[in-house]
Amino acid sequence: MISQHLDRYGVEDALAEPVVPVGRGWTAALVVANGAIWVGWFGPLQILLALQAAELAPAGTSKETVLAWVTGCGAAVALVATPLFGAASDRTASRFGRRAPWIAGGVPAGAAALALLATADGVPSLLLGWCLVQLALSAAYAALTASVPDRVPRRQRGAVGGWLGAAQILGVLAGTGLATAAGGSAAGYLACAAFTVLGTLPYVLLHRDPVLPAGRRPPLGLRAFLTAFWISPRRHPDLAWAWLTRFLVNLGNSIALLYLLYYLRDALHHPDPATGVLILTAVNSTLLLATVVAAGCWSDRIGRRKPFVLWAGVLMAAATAVLACWQSWPGALVAAGTLGVGFGVFMSVDFALMTDVLPAAAHRGKDLGVINIANSLPQVAAPALAAPVVRHLGGYPVLYLLAAAIALTGALFVRRIRGVD
């Protein structure tokens, strides 16, 4: 069986459909590296950027507007960078493999950008630093994500997706905890930077990627390269519906989380909003971890994906509706727990579904990069939708009802997928 993965150069074939199950050591290193990258993203997103936006907002400009511009521009950078770096890793013929060089380069660069954010003294430097973080960590994340269809057989992808989902939420929790406990924005950024570097070292140093021989790289032409980023919905309708499902569910989730600190401060009048965010994140994480791996394994066992994604979206919509209709600290706790259950199921099974509908092995990195736009684009769209709603169109009740409607619509679209049960 292993011989099916070896080409005439005697190295693992980077373009083969994987059939050999991955071991626990490889999965553990991948999971830790994934979680470390999420620490680098969500320590800033959950706490640090919001605190700096409130501190650095110019007179006459609201903190919500500053945060919207900074996070929106950073997400726009990630939106473009992720598929570009994924495509670049598809063509990388290094002796270290296609993906590892981009992880080894992107993570230290992202850590340096986090350190730059620690010195931000105005909105321009805050904006620049966050865009650089998004650029560098997108390179690492695109390569790390593409390692899954490179190495993991279809029958294991729900379980691996579940562990990656667990890593993501643990990364969010660790990033939030580091940002809260470090004792100031500068210390928080440096702590997140150090964690991100240390967490990715085992995967980079201990595990070898499949190698793409230089002679097997596709021809490079600018027009062909650029047009490759368009994946025709007519030719690949399942991928199109899967992308739309992921985009809308993530958009609803992004709207719900973007102003959480401000929601606790301004709507619930919580005495310590930063600690409140940490408590809600812990509740969310606990219930997410209780479901994310189990849902992925269950999906693998029965060979079905769509029912899990559908009901996960319904739960997430219900959770955000609770934030709109029950504006109290107990209501926030119930919403956090419900969102954790729903998002846990969605993260693991939707990831497996997306890898199941990829069109071609030669372009896994690029295709997953395009798919990951469905993660980044909501971060651009959410501030544009949320800021005017909060300030002019009904405040937080309308905001969270909008988030619920968007997530529910996305969940229903998964029923249009035909090639996956």
Secondary structure category = mainly alpha
Outline type: globular
β-strand number: 0
Please trace the helix and strand order, writing H or E for each element.
HHHHHHHHHHHHHH
Q: What is the distance, rounded to the nearest whole angstrom, between the alpha carbons of the first and last residues?
A: 28 Å
Write down the Rg.
21 Å
What does this 3D model show about the protein?
It is globular, with a radius of gyration of 21 Å. It has helices at 24-56, 63-90, 100-117, 123-151, 157-181, 185-206, 222-227, 237-258, 260-267, 273-302, 306-325, 329-356, 364-392, 395-413. The protein has 421 residues and is mostly helical. Helix 5 (157-181) packs antiparallel against helix 10 (273-302), helix 8 (237-258) runs parallel beside helix 11 and helix 8 (237-258) packs parallel to helix 13 (364-392). Helices cover 75% and strands 0% of the residues. Mean pLDDT is 83; it is low at 1-11. It is built from 14 helices and no strands.
